[in-house]
Amino acid sequence: MQTFKVPSSEVPGYSAIYRNSLFKDGTHGGEFAHITTAYELFQHHLAIAPKSEFLGTRQFNPADGSFGAYEWLTTTDAAEYVEDFGSGLDHVFAKYAPDAKGYGTQQPLGMYANNRYEWSLAEFSAIRSRRYTVGICDSVNVGSADYIINHAEISVVVCSIDKIPRMFDRMSITPSLRVVICMDRLDCSRPNPVMQAFCAESAAALRKRAVELGITLLDMDEVLEMGRATPTTACPPTPSDICTMCYTSGTTGVNKGVLLTHQGLIHGSRSCHLSLRLSDTTHLSLIPLAHCMDRYATYTFMYGGVRVGYANGDRALIADDIQALRPTVLVGFPLLLNGIYESMSKATIGAKGVTGALSRMAYRSKKKRLASTGNLSHGLWDRVLFNKVAAKLGGRLKTIISGAMNLNPEVINFFRAALSCNVVQGYGQTETGAAGTIQRLDDFTSGHIGVPNPGNDIRLRSKPDFGYLVTDSPCPRGELMIRSKSVFAEYLGEPEKTRDTMDGEWLATGDIVQINTTGTISFISRAKHHVKINNSCWVSPERLENIYVQHPLVQSLFVDGHDDYNKVVAIVVPDSAEFVPWARTVASSTAASLEELCANATVVQELTKLLRIYSASVDLSVDEQLGAIYIEPMPFRERNSGMYTSLLKLKRREASKFYAEQLKKLYTEVGGLFVASSL
Hints:
Blueprint: E1 3-5, E2 18-20, H1 38-48, E3 53-61, E4 66-74, H2 75-96, E5 108-112, H3 117-128, E6 132-135, H4 142-151, E7 156-159, H5 164-169, E8 179-182, H6 200-213, E9 216-219, H7 220-229, E10 242-247, E11 257-261, H8 262-276, E12 281-285, H9 293-302, E13 306-310, H10 318-325, E14 329-332, H11 334-347, H12 353-373, H13 379-391, E15 399-402, H14 409-419, E16 422-427, E17 437-438, E18 451-452, E19 457-461, E20 477-483, E21 490-491, H15 495-501, E22 502-503, E23 506-515, E24 521-526, E25 531-533, E26 537-539, H16 541-548, E27 554-560, E28 568-574, H17 576-587, H18 594-599, H19 601-617, E29 626-631, H20 636-639, H21 652-658, H22 660-670
Parallel strand pairs: 3-13, 5-6, 5-7, 6-10, 7-8, 8-9, 12-13, 14-15, 15-16, 28-29
Antiparallel strand pairs: 1-2, 3-4, 10-11, 11-21, 16-17, 17-18, 19-20, 20-23, 22-23, 23-24, 25-26, 27-28
Helix pairs in contact: 2-3, 2-7, 8-9, 12-14
């Protein structure tokens, strides 16, 4: 058993309490007990790796827009920067924002940029003086940035230069803003990708406009000089102080401001380090820093020493960043990892001819060896084939960590075989500082999100309306509850929502899971995403999406349901490489385009039949079969990026609105009055 079941801990409606089997007393033990804040963690990293490369960014050639090798700051360089910039921030707040509001006696520092080393340096500088950061994200719409600035009452923002014009344009609706600190040199003497659209004249125009608006505009070098000229004394935070405020991704409605303490983030990162024990790690920072997951990963790796290389900001060039950095660990989410899998698998196990046959033989051999011995390497097949595949991701990758959503077991198995690296899944929410559960490195199974992090207690709460009970046998099922020091302090300004989220000292996650016979935990779906069909049966569209997406003809899909109908329906995006040749055969047309095939009635009918057959093969109930489908030729994110959060999770309400006409036709096919489930 990978979890320890606390004796006699069951109460009516709730399961027993479960803990990590290696930490049965519910604590971390004494290791790293001296680290209680992010400031102390930074000092720890300085002590163990003072001259080591710490924060890296790629060289940029403005002449052709190309990127070169990574350039690095050592931990000592970063510490000197933090001390000088932190002193400068003290002067900025005292001189230009003396009345800055915040949480209690602390002041917020807004952070508004893509991932880059200045983001992290500014955050550690804020922490040095007991301030907390607030990540500002506008990947969905500009209005979300306005909302965050107003809701958090931010007076000072550190941002990239491309964000300044839009903030200035909307100053009338963000009255708290007083100071903007630009990460980029305002004399344009240090070129980088976001500076491409600016020149000395346009930067001077920004300064002029700032004066007209009554805003103080500085760049980071100017703040550094202020700090160097008149150093201030550091005012380190306490464990109970706020470290950062992160806004929820917004999949279920309005973003909430989640206040996370130093104690919480250190508890979570320390527990993850104790689970993974990674050292001398090289990490690619690509998940938006405005959320907590990437920072949680960096904090975790800092216990054992880390090099953090920042992605250049262009998602199309992520593979190039990976090649340049050669990471030892890759922290990602399923949409990113699925994209890597699709590219690699098509060139190997999905290839035709000798290459495909050899790859499939090698793949089967490595999977069998891994299952029987736990050995990720294979002397013959790695030398002949898989070392070349691993080189595509730099050749040094040892661990892949996936979060946010379920990762297809086939993707996990492929990475373990083709890259000779371990793949673990974890679970967390913004409300837990991204910490919750993590898969053990010696566990080579799939289909679950691991076990409780050391120091975390979990239990389940029955959800009888949905048919999930803690008394279910052999696997208890219900809503996941977490008790941990990593749980958030509160939602800013929303005490009722804070109370609704807590059940005593337990965080009610809103996620349905089951405890497996091995003690591992499997994610089923978000409780809020369940829908009732035929006025009687509850189904989980999210769970169905995770199942149907494993069909070889399907790339992604959106499942919708409503109690006025007895069937769920779906918008299906096909896997074009597999779908086109199959559909051309069905349509008896060797030249039909993807769009034509998606609109072909016979193709739609045959794919619907195949998916129903598939549903029976994976033991779905009749209620979980797709009643009708619409085939969408374009991936959801390309069709409308507003359907995704910045963490690339589907926003069901937005998807329902966007496909309202298609859903109306599908519900007409299954009978009944059309009402989109999320409207």
